Amino acid sequence: MKRARASLLLLLTCLACGTPQAEPPPPHEEHTTSQAMEPGDYWAAHAARFQQTELQRDIPIQRFQRLGAHNAHVSNAYSHAGRWYTRINQHRYVYNQLAMGMRALYVDVWDHGCFYDKDEPNDPYGNEQAKGLCFSHGAEPFSTPVNGILGEISTWLREPQNQNEVILIGIEDNEVTSDDSRKRLVNLLRHFLDQSYPNVPGDTRGSLIFTPQDLRTYFSNPWPMGPGTRAAGPYHPNRWPTNEELARMGKRVIISVKDRFNYASLPDGNGATLKDWVFSESSGHYQGGSAEPDVWTNAPGYPANAAKKFTGYPSCGSSDLSGALGLYWTEFSELRICDHNVYCSLPYSAFSDYLNYDTATKCGFSISMDQVETNLKYAPFDDYFSAMRSAIWSFGEDEPNSKVGDEDCAEFKGSTGQWNDLDCSTHRKRACRKVGATCDASYCPSDFWTVTSLAYPWAPQYNLCPDGYDFLPPQNGFENQKLYDRLGGVESAWINFSDRLAEGKWQYEGFQWWSEGEPNNYGNTEHCAVWQGLDGLNDIACSMTRAYACLKIGTTRETYAALPNPWIITDATGPWNTPQCPAGYEFAPPRNASTGYRLQELSYLSGKNAWVNLTDQFEEGRWEEAPYQPWAAGEPNNEFGNEHCVRTYANGTWNDEPCGFSIKHACRCTSQSCTLNDWKLSDTAGAWNKSTCGDGWTFSAPRNSAENEALKQKLQNTSVWVNLTDQAREGRWVHWGGAPVPYTRWASTEPNNYNGVEHCALMTANGTWYDSNCAESYAHACRKFGASCSATSCPADYWALGGAGNFDNPQCPSGYIYSTPKSDLENAALLTKTQGQFTWLKLIDRGHEGHWTTWD
């Protein structure tokens, strides 16, 4: 972390004799409810949680706008034997910083000059293994024990109300000088950051840590990179996971160090090295690192993040870099030094860089704060010192408050740009966000937001937004500011955020068309959703018998309106958890208003009520999908408390088993030549998380009974792992991982971002791709709605060319959409259509240089 000059200590020696202001002690194991802690009860703490945990739940973590604590350990809450930090960045315990909404903790670890001889008296590692490690702060005479603070973090992470929270721990380890110290540091992290902590001494499973290997295994393209790709390393990742995906995986801690290669020679005891447990910070990401130029493991962080380098809003840049910054681990940090009595004026101002939190928040950037405080009247951290007010871009101060009762829906107040809770029956215009578009300071479409011309009640089930838009909320400060600009600082509008399904549990609803008065969880037994004709959804007991609503696999926004209806309702009936969908269909809920209309039509005309794939069994009021699960009788039973991975047997039934068993894996074909229900078994056996499916295949799980039968035919009296686990939360079975990256066909020297302005993909006369300036004028590649290629050819009308224009203004013919090839076959078909004419492809890296995305 940033340090004041050593001479500052001379100015502080006279202050070391005072008594630091104290705060209540952090919770111990017997106090396990952070909501009872005062700092977590204030408006700012609740709003910080809404912004990060709910509104950004589906945002990839590299674009996430998080609130962090700079030098989280350097707090006057910590003292021992009359000693403390002489200059501080914080005044609360780390536990309370987390309770106040901090989702990034930045700390300095030292292995010399520590105040303690060992981490703490009850150190589970013993004196020799933990000796000399501490959290410290630039030549201070005081330090804090590693075990104490890691214990606070572990306690907070394991509390029931925090199971959807993901945190980043940024470690400055420049003062960890030996391999022995590095080994002890990572093993301590693995010990405390485990779901089973407090566990036995020496246990280093680290089950809560999301690792670089997890990124490669579950979110990377399984094919080796071809020529012309830019990223180093054996695999090119598809994407970073979202917060929700990490929470479902139970991988809720990301750790970065200065250079992970420093840990490369240290074995982790599992056949890998300690390098595989930590990411490298930003300096490695942008400069290649001293020994490991792997762009995808050298993050998170940003190299030019000092407050004095921030250029403000609307430029949203750094003085070290040209142009506005996108959202790729972009974070700015304040340095505000105070003494242990929290005196933050002279002489300390000469050593402080104050960050303009308000404008950094408007830019959508993550910020790490000094003197984190949610009680805005907490002396001496009154309104003048509070950063939290500026860091909250969503609800206005003391909102939501349900002031007149039944205020369950969020209104965007055009006069302030902040939100208010309001009665859902009130008429307001609706804020509609462009589907598939990204918006940040580096580029945001001018039509990212639109507003309906008429006012309506809040109800999200009606498709009132124009084509190409959905009723969606802002997800960061920049998007929120753009909506404020669109509304002209005057009129207000509904946004899709409410607590109408469970009081106090604010969430984006998506599409949930509930009957009047539902869901009501009558008798506390109704946790599964059924569709009832014209009325929509109702919650009933999951054990009741109904038919099943099955949606055609691959149904998209382009095809939901096509005939025939993409839904079927089965003749077979049963309880909610045994869906019986035919080949090519999956048990699903309506995911937007248009698919809801089609299911409503089918249910009404057929006279059938049908189960849909929505349940709140795992968290009351949070309705979510669950995967297909054909369990054997009496399964899953978590026998002996360690069965958290799924194995399918020769008869097609599933059983939960310990994840360490060595058997083969079920691999689904994901290459262009795949046929329906094409499965194989991995070549080698291994533990559940050690899949070896090979090129063009992905570790997967059947989505319906037909796919399960197809896999069964491959088993030949053996059993295999399928991609389903409840390691994160007992009984909540989820898949891990994502889909492959888009196909690319770059020329050998492309993309090169010539002159720093080439961010859009262009097909050239020979069929290879170049990056080019998005403002140039070319035709656009347009793919026919619903069309598909066979294994050997594409239809003659598969591609058409749109009119000439810049990248952002495609003029596709009726029945076609702006697109990009996804295979050599599709690329060749497009080349035939272009006849050598340069043509825009729907592929950009404006959000972050080198990170190409299709928007799809």
From TrEMBL:
Its main location: membrane. Keywords: Membrane, Signal, Transmembrane, Transmembrane helix. Transmembrane segments: none annotated. It comes from the Bacteria. GO terms for molecular function: phosphoric diester hydrolase activity. GO terms for cellular component: membrane. It is found in: Membrane. The keyword Ion transport does not apply. Residues 393-433, 443-551, 611-668, 690-783 form the C-type lectin domain. Residues 1-22 form the signal peptide. GO terms for biological process: lipid metabolic process. Pfam families: Lectin_C, PI-PLC_cat. InterPro entries: C-type_lectin-like, C-type_lectin-like/link_sf, CTDL_fold, PLC-like_Pdiesterase_TIM-brl, Telomere_Capping_Maintenance. This is C-type lectin domain-containing protein.
